[in-house]
């Protein structure tokens, strides 16, 4: 299937970018970073932008800068650069591991962290060439039904990107810009549980960077499970960050998951359950499943919610083992 024709712009500065989109109608244009998802959707006729505005030539967006306590990663930074950065590997292992697990080396060369954070939700009834649709349109295709949840009043497509749970566990902040200026949004407030539109990003807004505070002696890890070992989105992925107080005891664990709802999910109930427990004692995890049962999970592609909860539990346990192992090598944790 060929790409349908569109006008292409490649601005080199952010102000040029905002000038270009100001001249486009609301739904006429698509923002493209690496294009590893956008071009697939155009080819499958899932979206039909008349204009594509590429972020590739805006050099300001491609950077990893360490200043004071903060690391700032430009939204256009390719995933391979993040996974291989010595700074990210040393201080933000969960992010390095998550970026290094996306798809394949070729896709990580093109795909950016901004595109990963802003990745659309996915569903078997949507992510396929338009020509192969043999069923009535669902919410995501402009209809009024859902083929996954009977009598649903919204779309339950799944958020499956790898880096957002790692960024949630690192309490990252997102820098969002429009033509008039910039603002910072805590990662925790960026998403909503809605398969149609899971990001709180205005039509004329652009994600320009991610900021992460470096926490001295924090341990972190990201692990995921997918049905095929090859190039595939995760069925479930879990990131964990375990900051340490000066006396060496861990406190305020932060965890987040992908593949369970229409947004990356902070696992608050499980965090509260684990906080102030001796995590090196396997008995301390008894009762974790009761907390995970509170999470609403919808059955997609015949994968039972109980199976995903079991995966969540196993991935949390393994992440904890990696993070509490003395001098744990982050690379060993990459599952
Ligand atoms: C075969 C295959 C396997 C894949 N496997 C995985 C996987 O295992 N894990 C995973 O996480 N992803 C996977 N992906 C999806 C995708 O490749 C990655 O998520 C990648 O990081 C997307 O980045 P990109 O720069 O290519 O995004 P694009 O395709 O350029 O953009 C994706 C979306 O983000 C928006 N966007 C991009 N940058 C910005 C910005 N700065 N501000 C606002 N909006 C923006 C675009 O408008 C678009 O809606 C896979 C894709 C393919 C084709
Ligand atoms: S979850 Fe339902 S509405 Fe959303 S894409 Fe799938 S079938 Fe369509």
Walkthrough of the structure:
This protein is an alpha+beta fold and 335 residues long. It has 2 domains: 1-57, 2-Layer Sandwich (Uridine Diphospho-n-acetylenolpyruvylglucosamine Reductase, domain 2); 62-117 and 159-333, Uridine Diphospho-n-acetylenolpyruvylglucosamine Reductase, domain 3 (2-Layer Sandwich), CATH 3.30.465.10. Helix content is 27%, strand content 18%. The protein has helices spanning 14-22, 38-43, 79-84, 86-91, 93-101, 105-110, 113-117, 163-169, 268-274, 288-292, 305-324, 330-333; strands at 7-9, 29-32, 51-54, 64-67, 70-74, 173-178, 181-186, 206-213, 219-225, 236-242, 254-258, 265-266. It has a 5-stranded antiparallel β-sheet, with no helix packed on it. It has a 4-stranded antiparallel β-sheet with strand order 9-10-11-12, sandwiched between helices. A 3-stranded parallel β-sheet has the order 1-3-2, covered by helices on one side. Helix 2 links the parallel strand 2 and strand 3 (51-54). Residues 328-335 have low confidence and may be disordered. Flavin-adenine dinucleotide binds at residues 30-38, 40, 55, 75, 79, 102-103, 107, 110-112, 114-116, 118-120, 161-162, 206-207, 231, 233.
Topology:
Layout: E1 7-9, H1 14-22, E2 29-32, H2 38-43, E3 51-54, E4 64-67, E5 70-74, H3 79-84, H4 86-91, H5 93-101, H6 105-110, H7 113-117, H8 163-169, E6 173-178, E7 181-186, E8 206-213, E9 219-225, E10 236-242, E11 254-258, E12 265-266, H9 268-274, H10 288-292, H11 305-324, H12 330-333
Parallel strand pairs: 1-3, 2-3
Antiparallel strand pairs: 4-5, 5-8, 6-7, 6-8, 9-10, 10-11, 11-12
Helix pairs in contact: 5-8
